[in-house]
Structure prediction request, 316 residues.
Amino acid sequence: MAELINTFSWSVSASRDFDECRRKRYLARYAMWNGWKDQATDIQRAAYRLSKMENRFILQGNAVEMAVIWAIRQQQEGKAVTMDQAYAVAARPFLNQCWKESSKKMWKSNPKKFCCLQEHYYPEHNTQPESEMTARMIDEIKQCLSNFIQEGLPRFKGIEEAQEVKIATVDSGDPESFQFEGLKIYAIPDYVYKKDDQIHIHDWKSGNPRPFHNDQMALYSLWANVKHNAPVGNIHVHLEYLLSGTVQSAVLTKNEFQKISRLIRCSVAEMAEYLVDGDIRKNKPLPQEDWEMAADIYACKRCKFFELCKPELGNI
Ligand code: SF4
Prediction:
């Protein structure tokens, strides 16, 4: 098998990690590289394993997304669905499986295949009792699904699978990406379809609105423009907050396209300062100590790489 090359890439989440903590970007993109190999060093192996860690918010979002897609498929087959069915058939088995893998530490044999939850791995950083946490997750997932089935699902009536744009995910290998000014940019919208000459991009959120969601939607519009040749005025983005049952729909303007393009260029330029000769083509990182640690110590308590930084953080 050909050797994998660690090429420079950018995404909204990578940019957020970098802004929060330079060291996090180093651990997530460079220290972990080759950590899957038999001959990996202890640091490489640990960074790779920790990079795969998830948390209860990611798990909740994934469970909701699976159930939403299941409900859309049922509707496409002409079947009626209820919230209870969507939860029981699509969300609950997934949640139970992840919870079991994480609590039994099955990730020790294969961190890519089996789920590891931060809440299990760093129990000292999680003050909420497990029973309260799971009860809240289940309530919120059911609330999201209830809102989707009542308000969201009818809007997808008549959309056939053939109209959908396939989105590559982590499960299918390299996730969805596109080339922008010679850079690899990851953009993984939840659900996309074409209708007439318009393209519709939906992203389902199971939590509260956050400012970076708008950057994500702008990036998805750029993806549709570059990768699918969709004209700027024909790209509709729908940010669906399922917990509250609200939707923010928009068609981005040329100004907003320029704004997300500028954000990418600025962020990439800052990241390049941490590479040897500032060369993103070679993509060789400066030594670990040149990547500053988080200024906000509370960020460390939410961070999956805490174990690797602990010796430098002392007692926090
Ligand atoms: S534990 Fe803190 S310093 Fe280390 S990578 Fe995470 S946020 Fe950065």
